[in-house]
Amino acid sequence: MKFSFKLLLTLYLLFCSWSVLSEQGKGTAEVVTKSFSLGNDGSSVTYTVAITPNRNRVIALENSSRHSDNPGKLIALFNVGMNQTSFDDIEPNKYGGFSIYSGCDTCGRFSTVIEYKIAYRNDKYLVAGYTLSEADRVEASFKICDVNLLTGAADITVNDESSRKKGDDRAFSLDELDSDYKPKVCLGM
């Protein structure tokens, strides 16, 4: 039995937001679908972002170009926190992959922006990089943790001091991404 992309997304949304809907008694999900090109090889990705009533985002990715033997193949379905940054939910990056953003860069005193860098390797999409940027507008301080999950190399910046560390976290499949993920090397900054 073959299920459609939108049917799977709808079922997942219902499953993820059932407890919220039952607690609040009502609620709807906002759904947006967009496409963008990757690289010069004609590849493209279509993504659907659904914002659940509890303000989380469920993102479904569909890729037809790289998987020509199975057009419309669902690449990944995952849940990440709300995006209230100046970036789109998903944007192509200069490495031929794309980045997924979450956080809030204009929410009061504190600003947090998370960028998950996605790469295509060995016929699958991987979370290949992670950047956490935090700022305190009152104290005029900032922290950045930029991790290359392909190599484990991490650049940590706290205010004006930078250091390079080696982390244990490595790239993982995009469908394993969730909003609680944070590389261990970023925990102590």
Description of the molecule:
- With 189 residues, the protein is mainly beta.
- It has one domain (5-187).
- It is 13% helix and 49% strand.
- It is built from two helices and 13 strands.
- It has helices at 5-24, 184-187; strands at residues 30-38, 43-51, 57-63, 73-80, 83-84, 90-92, 98-104, 110-121, 124-136, 141-148, 153-158, 161-166, 172-173.
- Strands 5, 6, 7, 8, 9, 10, 11, 12 and 13 form a nine-stranded mixed beta sheet that branches. A four-stranded antiparallel beta sheet has the order 1-2-3-4, with helices on one face.
- β6 (90-92) and β7 (98-104) form a beta hairpin.
- The longest helix has 20 residues, at 5-24.
Determine the strand fraction and express it as a percent band.
over 45%
Question: What does the largest sheet look like?
Answer: 9 strands, mixed
* Class derived from helix and strand content: mainly beta
Spatial separation of the terminal alpha carbons: 49 Å
Task: Indicate the low-confidence ranges by residue numbers.
Answer: 5-26
* Rounded Rg: 18 Å
Short description:
With 189 residues, this protein is mainly beta. It has helices at 5-24, 184-187; strands at residues 30-38, 43-51, 57-63, 73-80, 83-84, 90-92, 98-104, 110-121, 124-136, 141-148, 153-158, 161-166, 172-173. Strands 5, 6, 7, 8, 9, 10, 11, 12 and 13 form a nine-stranded mixed beta sheet that branches. Strands 1-2-3-4 form a four-stranded antiparallel beta sheet, covered by helices on one side.
